[in-house]
Design a protein that fits this description.
By secondary structure, the chain is α+β, with helices and mostly antiparallel strands. The chain has four helices and 16 strands. Helix 1 runs parallel beside helix 2. The longest helix is centred in the last third of the chain and has 13 residues. The chain is elongated, with a radius of gyration of 22 Å.
Length: about 260
């Protein structure tokens, strides 16, 4: 089940199609309350949509703008924010519009079929599947190992990644990481130096639930098994210059930061 937990802002439950914008939004001046049409972007309509945006902004009158939308029956079916602020939260409550926040809105796309449950603070995506995987940074005296994926790879073709792969049934994430490292590089590693909570990466109709690891390896003699077409040992600062799988750089930076703090 593609269900994600967040925080309840306004209770209620609704299912609908996502309309997402990527910037902070002001209901006051941002929407026509008589039609539900947005005055920003492509003038799309939020009526009966799951309206997704990072956070609200603007005058407190925006709360009453939401109420006007509800009175005109042109309100969104539900609202999802990355971080709720008072204006939108108040507007959702007084208008009885289900609303949640504290979820990763980067995994949502306009057109997604989503149920928002403001009673338990969750959202469920009906048109995607979750695949659980691992992604391991190998650290040596030469830097971090980066692998170049084939142009015909089934996921993230033609870009650079850490050592990644799916977790098999009844396999722990750490065991999967070690197995994938040996299969794809021929290198053997001991226990991870650092592990992070899973991160979620969206690719078309798949959400990858990724467990990141950092391993130290003594050998740099990589033997590719055919799943990748090239490799490089890269100074961490130079990963930013590469075309990589989503969130690779941020995960590496966080793991190295935690390692330095030990």
């Amino acid at each position: 089940m593609s269900k994600f937990s967040g925080r309840t802002i306004s209770k209620g439950k609704a299912r609908g199609i996502v309309l997402k914008i990527d910037t902070a939004f002001s209901f006051l001046g941002g929407v026509d309350t008589s039609t539900g049409s947005l005055k920003v972007g492509d003038n799309e309509n939020i009526c009966n949509k799951i309206f997704v945006f990072p956070q609200g902004k603007g005058s407190t009158v925006g709360s009453f703008t939401m109420y006007d939308l509800k009175a005109n029956n042109k309100h969104p079916a539900a609202v999802i924010n990355k971080a709720a602020e008072t204006i939108v939260a108040t507007g959702a409550v007084i208008s009885s519009i289900p609303m949640i926040d504290s979820v990763d809105i980067d995994i949502l796309r306009t057109g997604d079929d989503v149920t928002v449950d403001g009673n338990d603070g969750t959202m469920e995506l009906h048109n995607v599947k979750i695949i659980t995987s691992v992604s391991s940074a190998l650290l040596s005296d030469k830097g971090i190992l980066m692998l170049e994926r084939p142009d015909d790879a089934s996921s993230f073709p033609g870009v650079w990644s850490l050592v990644a792969g799916k977790i098999e049934e009844n396999e722990s994430a750490a065991d999967a990481a070690k197995r994938e490292i040996y299969e794809e590089t021929g290198l053997s590693v001991h226990d991870p130096l650092i592990s992070l909570d899973p991160i979620f990466v969206r690719e078309n109709d798949v959400i990858w639930k990724v467990y990141p690891f950092l391993f130290r390896c003594g050998s740099t003699d990589v033997k590719l098994n055919g799943e990748n077409k090239n490799y490089k040992w890269v100074v961490p600062e130079n990963i930013e210059q590469m075309c990589t799988v989503t969130s690779t750089l941020s995960a590496v930076r966080k793991m190295l930061s935690e390692l330095a703090g030990k």
